[in-house]
Design a protein that fits this description.
heterodimer; A: alpha/beta; 4-stranded parallel beta sheet; 4 strands; globular; B: mainly alpha
Chain lengths: 142, 266
């Protein structure tokens, strides 16, 4: 396995992006960083700037206004990068599926690597999703 | 291992240059910062291992070279054309202005103690003969001032005002990605060794390689880093005006008292 990807999987810095969620998923993401769940043991830290990030965590249903910003931010991440959709809204727009303001799900706009369902997903589910994503990438490269 | 993994990862990533920024300055600033830290490290090891290979005024060279990483952060921040980066860079500038005065004053203490010698090698040699400078009253005062200035030089928590992750999201580093960020992180990590090592050479007799002294030297380094970490973890971030008042007030006064005490041979 090449050393760049190996290092990437050992220190994925995450950027947390809310596209108009109800804040529950965001709270659960922040829970992952607390000592109780301690996602830092996988080398993950919350990056403040999109230019430092490797993983984009998207929450929320993605309305007309925010999807333009999501696309812009996706263009700004240094590649190679990963995108993880967290929560029912990010996966399928949830209860906003018939809303005039949420025309397309997020994975129609940017490529999504992992989906973590739940409303909101538990921190354990988020960690399990992150680990599964890392395992999948390891297998793909081998 | 984590810092090494982070740096390897960042080296493998894309380097983005923001639109409208000064491209050459933006990309060159981190490299110059790293180069100066490497030079300081070389000078310190040289003086520590072969104390007779010192040259007149290498202490002054080291003092100058130690400000260059901070200046590079300022230049890189202003070159990146980001409002938060310029804010961080201007804070870094104020921080340099505030801590340099007590830092230089405190460095004068070992100079006076080793019979007004500006050679690092002689400072180490004098301490090997007469015992460490930290053992005297002026040495202890200088140690307190230098630890505080180092905290500001490393941009660690009570004085991480220019980089304030939660406030201006990384400050001057906000637009850096990939290799540029990797070089900045490498510079920071090297400074975390170089600055305590400089302090050890000035006040604690450096690192010696004969027998039990080697273990003792490693313990000195670990002790200084532990002290820095304790200060970092037990203090909240101060505002820039509070930092300036702190350095120009109590710290400068303390450093001046230490210099006077050193002159009287205390």
């Amino acid at each position: 396995m090449n050393i760049k990807l190996k290092a990437l999987l050992k220190s994925p810095w995450v950027f947390h992006l809310s596209t108009g969620s109800c804040n529950n998923c965001d709270i659960e993401i922040l829970d992952c960083l607390t000592p109780r769940f301690d996602i830092e043991r996988f080398g993950m830290i919350l990056a403040g700037s999109i230019k430092h990030a490797d993983v984009l965590l998207v929450t929320g249903s993605g309305n007309r206004k925010s999807m333009e910003r999501v696309k812009k931010l996706y263009d700004q991440i240094p590649k190679p990068c990963l995108v993880v959709a967290i929560g029912e809204c990010a996966l399928s727009r949830g209860m906003f599926i018939h809303s005039y303001n949420c025309p397309v799900p997020i994975d129609k706009v940017i490529p999504v690597d992992a989906y973590i369902p739940g409303c909101p997903p538990k921190p354990e589910a988020i960690i399990a999703g992150a680990v599964k994503l890392i395992e999948k990438l390891k297998k793909n490269v081998k | 291992m984590q810092p090494l993994i982070d740096i390897i990862k960042l080296l493998g990533k894309e380097t983005l240059v923001p639109k409208g920024s000064s491209r050459t300055t933006f990309l060159l600033a981190p490299v110059i910062g790293l180069a100066s830290v490497i030079l300081v490290s070389t000078l310190l090891w040289m003086n520590n291992i072969w104390t007779d290979k010192t040259f007149l005024g290498d202490l002054i060279v080291v003092l100058y070279l130690l400000t260059i990483p901070s200046i590079c952060i300022i230049v890189g921040g202003f070159a990146s054309r980001n409002p938060l980066a310029s804010l961080g860079a201007s804070r870094e500038m104020k921080l340099i202005l505030s801590y340099e005065l007590p830092f230089v004053l405190a460095v004068l203490v070992p100079v006076i103690k080793s019979n007004f010698s500006l050679r690092l090698g002689e400072i180490v040699a004098v301490q090997a003969q007469n015992g460490v400078i930290l053992g005297s009253l002026s040495g202890i005062l200088a140690f307190i001032v230098l630890i505080m200035c180092m905290q500001a030089k490393l941009a660690l928590v009570p004085f991480d005002i220019p980089e304030a992750e939660t406030e201006i999201i990384g400050g001057p580093l906000i637009e850096y990605s990939g290799t540029g960020l990797a070089i900045y992180r490498l510079t920071k990590n090297m400074l975390l060794f170089v600055l305590p090592f400089f302090l050890m050479i000035l006040l604690m007799g450096g690192l010696r390689f004969d027998g039990i002294h080697l273990l003792f030297g490693i313990l000195k380094y670990v002790g200084v880093v532990a002290l820095i970490t304790v200060i970092r973890n037990t203090n909240p971030r101060v505002r820039i005006d509070q930092a300036m008042r702190f350095f120009w007030g109590p710290m400068t006064l303390l450093a001046a008292v230490a210099v006077v005490l050193a002159l009287f041979g205390q």
